[in-house]
Amino acid sequence: MRIAMVGSGYVGLVSGACFADFGHSVVCVDKDPAKIESLRAGRMPIYEPGLEALVAETVRQGRLTFRTDLTEAVAQADAVFIAVGTPSRRGDGFADLSYVYAAAREIAGALTGYTVVVTKSTVPVGTGDEVERIIREAAPDADVSVVSNPEFLREGAAIGDFKRPDRIVVGADEARAAEVMNEVYRPLYLNQAPILVTSRRTAELTKYAANAFLATKITFINEMADLCERVGADVQAVARGIGLDNRIGSKFLHAGPGYGGSCFPKDTLALVKTAQDAGSPVRLVETVVSVNDQRKRAMARKVIQACGGAVRGKTVAVLGLTFKPNTDDMREAPSLAIIAGLQDAGATVRAYDPEGMEQARTLLPDLAYAEDPYDCAEGADALVIVTEWNAFRALDFERLHGLMAAPVVVDLRNVYRPQDLEAKGFRYTGVGRPEGV
Ligand code: NAD
Predict the structure, then answer these.
(1) Catalytic one among 228, 263, 307, 376?
(2) Rounded Cα gap, residues 280 and 77, in angstroms
(3) Which end is more exposed in the chain, N or C (fewer Cβ atoms within 10 Å of the end residue's Cβ)?
(4) Does one domain contain both 180 and 321?
(5) Does 192 have pLDDT greater than 90?
(6) What domain range includes position 307?
(7) Where does the UDP-glucose/GDP-mannose dehydrogenase C-terminal domain start and stop, copy by copy (predicted)?
(8) Residue 330 burial by Cβ neighbours in a 10 Å radius (0-12, 13-18, 19+)
């Protein structure tokens, strides 16, 4: 198959490289010339484990190329994927579809022969109808089907997720389009990945339902964690106790500082708006959104409390800035709200992150950036673990004790056991765990 991937960000680049690895011929297009130039030079514009090697190999085999202009790639393609961003729209939180529609217009002008246009971006239900309308209006003679194929990969594990998905959802209202999609995913089908063919609208909504459900699960355990703190119970044991029930499952039951990232916050909000517009509000998800928003700021108050109730004039060391480990993505990271809360309360914040500092510098210009965890902790009145990078899982606490002005650790990911750190002379605060457990 010949594939054009329009948008070469976290999703487009990973999907394009994986499709090329399956044996397809792929052109990854991006309108950002710096991104394409860097990819052509073999430099990855994002951090994603395994991506550089996969791109290098598929480029070497001649199956993956990069372009800023989509015309030729679209003209030759059997399937054109739209993988551009769909951020929250300023003001109302609905998905900003301007990039998707702009891509659709550009694609329309370049179509030749039967082509399946596939929306891989996360888009509200009904967007496929509008993409189709735009294309038919701009290119009335084009032989085209518009399909929805939402992506479920996770940053940090994106290649594994793409190659071994739990399922592939294809929303195709025409059989011939579904056939092309079957061909595109045939290598995975042979690996027994279930392909679920649905209507286009069903596929679009499935993606939001999945993300809203996962966000709800996280928010549920976070509220249980708060309750545990009040009543002297241990949220990790509660999570295990419920997670071993197969009907519940153990994933996404880790209490922490609230969900962030490029997907859950914007997708839950967009679902809320879609549901309101449809006259069928999703009140559970509305509550999840507001509970999670408040939680991030509440985590700053947790740190302040651990510092004795005030941080004015104190230095707080923050370990981990990205919304989760193994990515450089800073979008909607809880660290942003936590650091703002600490700075507003008068703290000087110093931070370290293995991959996120470059992106963080533009979002958090008033922050001091450290070379490593120990440089970060030097002279600090508290050490806060915000993201559970492996690099923070085996810290040398004896060394840290000697470096810090006060032995205070706030572990927002429950990486450490309270009694271990207390034995090393630290005052430890976790999430949802009574002291001394
Ligand atoms: P991203 O911002 O990393 O990448 C989008 C890219 O599209 C950018 O490089 C941008 O320059 C390019 N672009 C925009 N308009 C273009 C055009 N007209 N022509 C060519 N290139 C264009 O975004 P992302 O994180 O890859 O997300 C893309 C979509 O996938 C979103 O809808 C997102 O919700 C969804 N999604 C993301 C993830 C994730 O983990 N990041 C997972 C599943 C789904």
Answers:
(1) 263
(2) 39
(3) C
(4) no
(5) no
(6) 226-429
(7) 317-418
(8) buried
pLDDT exceeds cutoff 70 at 435? no
Pocket test for ligand 1, best of 70, 121, 262 (most atoms within 8 A of CB): 262
Within 8 A by CB and 6+ apart from 170, the residues are 147, 148, 149, 178, 181, 185, 195, 196, 197, 198, 203
376 a catalytic residue: no
Give the burial class of 223: count Cβ atoms within 10 A of its Cβ; 0-12 exposed, 13-18 middle, 19 or more buried. middle
Work out the end-to-end distance of the chain between its first and last CA atoms, rounded to an integer number of angstroms.
57
Same domain, 143 and 259: no
* Same domain assignment for residues 189 and 259: no
Name the residue of 5, 6, 11 whose CB sits within 8 Å of the most ligand 1 atoms, as the mutation to test its pocket. Answer: 11
Residue 273 CA neighbour count, 13 Å, CB half: 18
CB atoms within 10 A of CB 64: 27
Q: In this predicted model, what pLDDT tens digit does every residue of 317-334 receive, in sequence order?
A: 999 999 999 999 999 999
Atom of ligand 1 nearest to the CA of 12: 26
Tell me the pLDDT of the chain averaged across its residues: 96
Phi, psi of 306 (to 5 degrees): -65, -25
pLDDT tens by residue, 203-252: 999 999 999 999 999 999 999 999 999 999 999 999 999 999 999 999 99
H-state helical runs in 26-151: 33-40, 51-60, 71-76, 98-108, 127-138
d(CA 208, ligand 1 centre) in Å: 16
Residues 169 and 104 placed together within one structural domain of the fold: yes
For residue 54, the domain's CATH number is 3.40.50.720
Residue 417 neighbours by CB under 8 Å, 6+ apart: none
Nearest atom within ligand 1 for CA of residue 32? 11
Query: Does the beta carbon of 11 lie inside 6 Å of ligand 1?
Result: yes
Q: Tell me how far apart the alpha carbons of residues 268 and 401 are, in angstroms, rounded to a whole number.
A: 41
Tokens representing residue 327 in the block: 């990515």
Q: Note the helical H segments in 244-346.
A: 264-277, 283-306, 334-344
Q: Which residues are paired to 177 by β-bridges?
A: none
ipTM of the complex: 0.99
